[in-house]
Write a structure and sequence with these properties.
This protein is an alpha+beta fold. The protein has 2 domains: about 140 residues, no CATH class; about 375 residues, Rossmann fold. Helix content is about 25%, strand content about 25%. Strand 25 and strand 26 form a beta hairpin. Helix 12 crosses helix 14. It is globular. Bound molecules: 2-acetamido-2-deoxy-beta-D-glucopyranose (NAG) (5 copies). The site of one 2-acetamido-2-deoxy-beta-D-glucopyranose has 5 residues, from loops.
């Protein structure tokens, strides 16, 4: 078939394989554990699909990320507005026109775009969607902790070849909602502490360890704000937050409720993850206006994380700091999806948003590739354009003193993203000086290494569904704590007429850990085999891929991050 027939195929919808391409041939489509198929969806049923349109000027975007985030650059802190980002990356009119024409011909209705015009979300019937995306076949699945129902295709999809220069990928077919970073309740340590010692991490313990006084709270005179994002039907309850603050919030001024919920806040059972995020973001970043992105209650065919990215590109006024406890195995995602999400994270960086991702709760991770074991990096933790937060425990579980590695702390080296220049020196130094390096076949030493920072992740008290729950652990706990502390630093920056911190990594690595407690003891978990015996990387002086540069010492960190 020649080009002419292929172009006709575009209008006729029936696409011979010669005239089509597969945008995500490497996307994993195996059913994740905990999900069950309920059979094929009714052809007349409605679903919504998200089309990621090809953007422009990505080299310029990269340059801008670097200049606005580098304290040595005259453009440092001169962030772009959403409209300026749109101006830069907006797809060409040929792309917009071609994709719209194709969707219209397929009978797509009510397509919604975002400010940057690089995503389109459209409603179609299952029948239309299966014609449009040749090979796709929609089935209904149920799974996850809240028995969520989703529509997904167990088969790959193809698009007309004429769309190859215009569409990155189609969202809503393959990726299942994330099972959030497996927050765990760990058994309480043996031994009962004498009077005067703490029995688990509370806001008091966090604020004491990280040197926050009762005066280190939001002033209420700036419009500073912070946010956390929840996926997979995770709700928080206002009443849990109120009860948490009644029990644990006596020693510092704080806000009594969340300022804004974006998305739908379901009525269901509260999730421990959601309760934890809100309670600790608002205890560390105390008295700072807090938003919650709640992507639950949306349509069955949507991908919650993708929907959150769309929201970022459709809201011109956003909180400065976002904490996200979401991650997938890097190897389970298609490379087009990973690259495009990475571009979305760069868009956020040029706008001066600080995005903090949990590093994950499986240490270095482990999987088997053609019979040999390797560590397993997680994404977006491995993106060079986010700040990734690992986890620590107290060396003495009952005393507010030194921190050591929490063995679950996610960390390692990306197999997708090469090492960014900002961490060149720190990572080479680690690789050449660590006395406990795992065999080189287990990790890709040339990749982006993470985490960048850490905070306590072990033994938290959370109030959920009216009940105080002890010993909740995971990097989902350390991430909002660090987020709140960066919001307090933003508060001081805004009060002194400076821009918010934005994408922190270039500055963080330039300052080589100033203002942080260096965590130098302990190793994280990995493959349980003879070769590595459950040990991944080990922390040491300076940066390491277990706890990054370390944990916050607020007054010292404020000093190093207040100017310029
Ligand atoms: C983006 O925001 C506009 C204006 O509020 C809205 O009409 C549109 O539906 C939004 N886009 C998406 C994809 O939700
Ligand atoms: C902060 O905390 C550490 C350890 O708890 C302590 O040694 C230090 O003096 C405190 N203050 C400052 C300003 O660093
Ligand atoms: C906390 O914020 C409120 C406004 O939301 C403000 O009136 C109050 O002064 C702040 N508290 C402190 C201690 O700064
Ligand atoms: C904060 O204030 C600035 C300057 O007054 C304004 O441009 C911005 O929209 C405000 N942000 C929020 C979240 O209200
Ligand atoms: C190692 O990482 C680089 C990027 O830094 C990548 O190009 C390469 O494919 C990776 N190797 C493996 C075996 O995954």
């Amino acid at each position: 078939m020649g080009l002419r027939e292929c172009l006709l195929g575009l209008a006729a919808l029936t696409v011979a394989s010669k005239c089509s391409y597969s945008p995500e041939p490497d996307q994993q489509r195996t059913l994740p554990p905990g999900w069950v198929s309920l059979g094929r969806a009714d052809p007349e049923e409605e679903l919504s699909l998200t089309f990621a349109l090809r953007q422009q000027n990505l080299e310029r975007l990269l340059e801008l990320v670097q200049t606005v985030s580098d304290p040595g650059s005259p453009r440092y802190g001169k962030y772009l507005t959403l409209e300026e980002v749109a101006e830069l990356v907006r797809p060409s009119s040929l792309t917009l026109h071609t994709v719209q024409k194709w969707l219209l011909a397929a009978g797509a209705r009510s397509c919604h775009s975002v400010t940057t015009q690089d995503f389109l979300t459209c409603w179609l019937s299952v029948r239309q969607a299966e014609l449009l995306l040749s090979g796709a076949e929609f089935h209904r699945y149920v799974g996850g902790p809240s028995k969520t129902r989703v529509l997904r295709s167990p088969h790959p999809y193809r698009l007309p070849k004429a769309l190859a220069p215009h569409v990155d990928f189609v969202g809503g077919l393959h990726r299942f909602p994330p099972i959030s970073s497996s927050l765990k309740q760990r058994p309480k340590p043996q031994a009962v502490g004498p009077v005067g010692l703490h029995l688990g991490v509370t806001p008091f313990v966090i604020r004491k360890r990280y040197n926050l006084t009762a005066q280190d709270v939001g002033s209420g005179t700036t419009n500073n704000s912070q946010a956390c994002a929840q996926f997979l039907e995770q709700y928080f309850h206002d009443s849990d937050l109120a009860k948490f603050m009644r029990i644990f919030g006596q020693s510092f001024p704080h806000q009594a409720s969340v300022a804004r919920v974006v998305g739908k806040q379901g009525r269901g059972h509260a999730g421990i993850e959601a309760s934890l995020d809100v309670e600790y973001l608002m205890s560390a970043g105390a008295n700072i206006s807090t938003w919650v992105y709640s992507s639950s209650g949306r349509h069955e065919s949507q991908e919650p994380f993708l929907q959150w990215l769309l929201l970022l590109s459709n809201q011109s006024v956003l909180p400065h700091v976002h904490t996200i406890s979401y991650g997938d195995d890097e190897d389970s995602l298609s490379s087009t999806y990973i690259q495009r999400v990475n571009t979305e994270l760069m868009k956020a960086a040029t706008r001066g948003l600080t995005l903090l991702f949990a590093s994950g709760d499986s240490g270095a991770g482990c999987w088997s590739v053609s019979g040999s074991h390797q560590f397993r990096p997680s994404f977006p933790a491995s993106s060079p354009y986010v700040t990734t937060v690992g986890g620590t425990s107290f060396q003495n579980p009952f005393r507010i003193t030194n921190e050591v590695v929490d063995y679950i702390s996610g960390g390692g080296f990306s197999n997708v993203f090469p090492r960014p220049s900002y961490q060149e020196k720190a990572v080479t130094q680690f690789l050449s000086s660590s006395p406990h390096l795992p065999p080189s076949s287990y990790f890709n030493a040339s990749g982006r290494a993470y985490p960048d920072l850490a905070a306590l992740s072990d033994g938290y008290w959370v109030v959920s569904n009216g009940m105080p729950i002890p010993w909740v652990s995971g990097t989902s706990a350390s991430t909002p704590v660090f987020g709140g502390i960066l919001s307090l630093i933003n508060e001081h920056r805004i009060l002194s007429g400076r821009p918010p911190l934005g994408f922190l990594n270039p500055r963080l690595y330039q300052q080589r850990g100033a203002g942080l407690f260096d965590v130098t003891r302990g190793c994280h978990a990995s493959c349980l085999n003879e070769e590595v015996q459950g040990e991944g990387f080990c922390s040491g002086p300076g940066w390491d891929p277990v706890t990054g540069w370390g944990t916050p010492n607020f007054p010292a960190l404020l000093k190093t991050l207040i100017n310029p």
